[in-house]
Amino acid sequence: MEETEFDDILDDWFIESLKTYKDLHLYQLEHPTQVIEWTSAKTVCVAGYSSSKNEILELRLPLKLFADENKGLCAERDFKVVHGGFTDGPVRCLRHVPGTRCAVTNDGLSSALQVWDLGGDDSDVIRRTGSVEGSGSASESGSRIAARLSTEPQVLHGAQSGDVRLSQLTSGQTVYKLAESDAADPLSSLHFLTDAVFLAGCCNGNILVADTRTPAAPQLSPPPAGESVLWWTGASDGSVVRLSSSGQAVVSDLRNLRGAASRAQLDVQTPRRGLDDVRVSWAPALDDCIAVSGFSGAVQIYSTSVWTTETQEVRPLFEHRGHAVASQSDDCGGAPVFVTSHSWHPERPRTLLSAASDGSVHVWDWVDQSEAGR
Fold it and tell me: Do 170 and 160 touch, CB atoms closer than 8 A?
């Protein structure tokens, strides 16, 4: 691509963004990240995933993003590193333990977990404080993690459906193990539905729902009909969405996971993706909306409220193309940029954070054009 052509595309997108974004802030990491984890309403953790030594950072989002009035007068418009450290290996999964200054990571190479102190007012250093033993088995992308704070910090973790366990962080003691079965399906995600009930999404589309208060076997829900290489799962308070590597999305009610409340064929590129590439997640503060990333250099927002029980092709409600547009990787002979992770803000309805393979991190508040004209 000629430089002048690239500049024209960038200029067109910038002009378009004045109408389509309420806020848009860009940041560049030294190395790309696959993890974005909120540690508060204004801070997130990111970490590199290269095979050598990596940074693990806590970033504070631009304060201008949170200014209700007179945004132009806000002095701080950039991301800021508030805590940082180093890890000897890659970080493929990272979870913050709610209510603490503690995070847990997995390197994608084994099922063991690493425990980190994120620092505080008296220290800007993130340091490793311990580890949690895994099951001994590992999938091609390591363990999945979900965290909770009961009487003390606990993490749910596992690489496969047959080895999910709940461990105390302070002692490393296992306090719960999923009832054993012959299945050993690699996991795509783990989600706490309540303080005691969790959901395990498998890459073959199976879903397991179990209660940590009982040794009873989990409820198993098979994948939707249709051929697909991989499935990814996102869970909210009342619904689950399963997304296939062919772009098929199926929404189910948690009370009836074997049924399909609605279906759709998403408008995504569908080359072969790995288990760690794609993300699908429900908006925590916006009804019936999901975000999808990893198929390309864009993050897509879909409204499931217009889907029906019959599969139909749907277009995204909004598409963030900023990572792909701003990247000049094609000009340098490299691979096209793709989104490596995204995360909804826990409180702001239309604010998301996204990261890409070129090391870019964007925080953006999108405008729903269907409401903008009202």
Answer: no
Main-chain phi, psi angles of 306, to 5 degrees: -100, 0
- Are residues 2 and 329 in contact, defined by beta-carbon separation less than 8 angstroms? no
**Rg from Cα positions in the chain:** 20
Residue 6: phi and psi, rounded to 5, are: -60, -45
Gap between the terminal Cα atoms of the chain: 39
Which residues does residue 290 pair with via DSSP β-bridges, in sequence order?
A: 282, 302
Cβ neighbours of residue 70 under 8 Å, at least 6 residues apart? none
HSE of 122 in the Cβ direction (CA atoms, 13 Å)?
1
- According to DSSP, the residues that pair with 113 across neighbouring strands are 132
Give the domains, in start order, of the chain with CATH numbers. 44-222 (2.130.10.10)
What are the CB-based long-range contacts (under 8 Å, 24+) for 369-373?
Answer: 369/20, 369/318, 370/317, 372/19
Q: How far apart are CA 59 and CA 293, in angstroms?
A: 21
Nearest to 96 by CA among 134, 56, 124: 56
**348, 285 contact by CB (below 8 A):** yes
User: Under a CB-based contact definition with an 8 Å cutoff, are residues 158 and 193 in contact?
Assistant: no
DSSP for 335-350 reads: PPP-EEEEEE-SSSTT
Exposed/middle/buried for residue 60 (C-beta within 10 Å: 0-12, 13-18, 19+): middle
Rounded-to-integer distance, Cα 89 and Cα 181, Å = 32
Residue 66 is classified by DSSP as G
Q: Are 12 and 6 in contact (CB under 8 A)?
A: no
pTM (predicted TM-score): 0.91
SS3 72: helix
pLDDT along the chain (374 residues), means of 10: 59 80 92 96 96 94 80 70 96 95 94 94 95 73 88 92 91 87 82 94 94 91 81 93 94 93 90 81 96 95 96 95 76 76 96 96 91 59
